[in-house]
């Protein structure tokens, strides 16, 4: 910990630091401290992380963009909820007594401080929620099973309905309110009157999108992605530039809606930043576990797939196909059923061809725990079956994580053990209340290099076991993404 002035000790700390944490209280007016202004020139190459402290019983984050616009030198930001004792002034003796009891208690791996520690040490756990329409209700049950299994969620990413459910979890971060709001939104999607009133002349889409926009705005309001409790991203398909887009900041409801824009039903959304037309991200990557790994830096990833499964059993009808013959086969009760895709089904299969290869790669990767609940019998627009789909997702997750706990699976066993303190002992971290600053520094220095997002690589890094190789990162695919987060100046979009 450096001084609050630019002293010789502060300069020494900055020169030796691998990462600088800039901490501020969220309930204060956004400002830049005198010492902080000198960081941009004194520590150019050092990673800087911005930490906003919130009272644990306080309001949800707001106006984070104002803080970040003043700090172009910060790599990312973190919202941390703190106990009341963090905001109270105490005498040194009182502080010693308080933290003696804290050190004697078991560490809470679900706290925001633990999440920040995992981020800094490259051991974050990411949750990726795939697209699939009404089948996305299984995400609600799966998140319930994950939390009950004792697995912390550090980063969330989603596509289509997964973008909505993921953003809702990052906003609420409480299972009861998260489930209730997801249920209310799903039931609202079953309103036939709303759909009829939103119909339009089908030039670009069947519906104007106004009713759908309103339903999403009622959930998120004018909140920005930066205001979510957890780091979050979603993916859309940019049909203007013919490329995928990753969204990590900006208007939350707009980018969630963009990632849910099913072609033909609702029109593409115009990006408020550059005016590009954005459609459902599922057309290019319906389960973006690769982005969670390579861009967000998660080490362990849970990927929940609720996408539709195409029937591979098709009728071999030869070189030509008569529609009249198909009509006769379908109307004749004595003929053998034939399986031939219709025009909408052919278009749907063509739209998702590009993401099939990516999905297979995710299934084979060693850093992803691939999860698919048994929900194939439910249709994409069957939102009225929310409770049933949610319960199936919960039951599947409960069974899966119980089996993982019994098998002591390597990728998740640190978070499934009943004795959570073993996580720290296996990392060689055993700090008592008598530990000094030097002892703490020694422990931290032993933490391995985090596997964070890197845009440049050299040949020497490929020989280091701590860094992934180019084959592991699949740089060719990553470079095809257009990441709006590279824009330095963030805009508050209403």
Radius of gyration: 25 Å
CATH topology of the largest domain: Cytosolic phospholipase A2 catalytic domain
Structural class: alpha/beta
Number of extended strands: 12
Q: What shape does the CA trace take?
A: elongated
What is the CATH domain class of the largest domain? Alpha Beta
Name of the CATH homologous superfamily of the largest domain: Cytosolic phospholipase A2 catalytic domain
Cα end-to-end separation:
39 Å
Q: Into which percent range does the helicity of residues fall?
A: 25-40%
Main location: membrane
InterPro entries: Acyl_Trfase/lysoPLipase, LysoPLipase_patatin_CS, NTE, NTE1_P-loop_dom, PNPLA_dom
Keywords: Hydrolase, Lipid degradation, Lipid metabolism, Membrane, Transmembrane, Transmembrane helix
Protein name: lysophospholipase
Give a description of the structure.
A motif (GXGXXG) lies at residues 131-136. It is an enzyme of class 3 (hydrolase). Strand 6 and strand 7 form a beta hairpin. The protein has 23 helices and 12 strands. The model is unreliable at 415-479 and 485-494 (pLDDT under 50). Helix 7 (137-148) runs antiparallel to helix 9 (175-188), helix 8 (161-172) packs antiparallel against helix 9 (175-188) and helix 11 packs across helix 12. The longest helix has 22 residues, at 386-407. The protein has helices spanning 8-16, 34-37, 39-42, 64-69, 92-104, 112-120, 137-148, 161-172, 175-188, 192-197, 210-220, 252-259, 289-294, 323-331, 343-351, 353-364, 386-407, 413-416, 422-426, 437-445, 459-462, 470-473, 475-478; strands spanning 19-25, 47-55, 76-82, 125-129, 155-158, 232-238, 243-247, 269-270, 277-280, 300-304, 368-371, 482-483. It folds into 2 domains: 8-94, no CATH class; 120-312 and 320-421, Cytosolic phospholipase A2 catalytic domain. It has 494 residues and is of the alpha/beta class. Strands 4, 5, 6, 7, 8, 9, 10, 11 and 12 form a 9-stranded mixed β-sheet that branches. Strands 1-2-3 form a 3-stranded parallel β-sheet, covered by helices on one side. Helix content is 40%, strand content 12%. The two termini are 39 Å apart.
């Amino acid at each position: 910990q450096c001084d609050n002035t630019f002293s010789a000790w502060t300069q020494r700390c900055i020169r030796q630091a691998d990462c600088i944490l800039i901490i501020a209280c969220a309930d204060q007016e956004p400002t830049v401290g005198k010492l902080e202004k000198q960081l941009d020139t004194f520590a150019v190459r050092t990673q800087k992380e911005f930490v906003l402290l919130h009272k644990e019983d306080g309001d949800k984050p707001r106006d984070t963009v104002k803080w970040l616009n003043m700090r172009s030198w910060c790599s990312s930001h973190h919202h941390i909820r703190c106990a009341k004792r963090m905001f109270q002034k105490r005498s040194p003796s009182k502080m010693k007594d308080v933290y003696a009891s804290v050190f004697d208690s078991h560490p809470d791996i679900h706290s925001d401080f633990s999440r920040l520690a995992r981020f800094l040490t490259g051991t974050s756990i990411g949750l990726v929620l795939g697209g699939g329409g009404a089948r996305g209700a299984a995400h609600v049950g799966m998140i319930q099973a994950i939390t009950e299994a004792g697995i912390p969620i550090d980063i969330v990413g989603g596509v289509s309905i997964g973008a909505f459910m993921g953003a809702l979890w990052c906003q609420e971060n409480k299972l009861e309110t998260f489930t209730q709001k997801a249920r209310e939104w799903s039931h609202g999607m079953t309103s036939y009157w709303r759909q009829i009133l939103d119909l339009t002349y089908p030039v670009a889409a069947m519906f104007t999108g106004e009713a759908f926009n309103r339903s999403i705005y009622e959930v998120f309001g004018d909140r920005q992605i930066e205001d979510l409790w957890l780091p979050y991203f979603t993916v859309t398909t940019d049909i203007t530039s013919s490329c995928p887009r990753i969204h990590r900041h900006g208007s939350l409801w707009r980018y969630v809606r963009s990632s849910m824009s099913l072609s033909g039903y609702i029109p593409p959304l115009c990006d408020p930043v550059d005016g590009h037309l954005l459609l459902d991200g599922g057309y290019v990557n319906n389960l973006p576990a690769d982005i969670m790994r390579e861009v967000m830096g998660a080490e362990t990833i849970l990927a929940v797939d609720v996408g539709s499964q195409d029937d591979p059993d098709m009728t071999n009808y030869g070189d030509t196909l008569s529609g009249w013959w198909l009509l006769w086969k379908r109307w004749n009760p004595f003929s053998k059923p034939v399986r031939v895709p219709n025009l909408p089904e052919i278009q749907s299969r063509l739209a998702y061809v590009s993401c099939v290869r990516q999905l297979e790669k995710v299934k084979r990767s060693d850093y992803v725990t691939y999860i698919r609940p048994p929900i194939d019998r439910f249709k994409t627009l069957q939102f009225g079956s929310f409770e049933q789909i949610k319960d199936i997702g919960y039951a599947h997750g409960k069974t899966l994580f119980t089996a993982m706990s019994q098998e002591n699976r390597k990728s998740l066993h640190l978070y499934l053990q009943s004795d959570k303190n073993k996580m720290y002992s296996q990392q060689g971290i055993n700090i008592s209340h008598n530990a000094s600053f030097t002892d703490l520094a020694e422990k931290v220095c032993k933490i391995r290099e985090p596997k964070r997002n890197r845009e440049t690589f050299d040949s020497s890094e490929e020989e280091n076991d701590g860094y992934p190789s180019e084959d592991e990162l699949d740089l060719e695919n990553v470079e095809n993404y257009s990441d709006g987060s590279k824009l330095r100046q963030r805009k508050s979009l209403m």
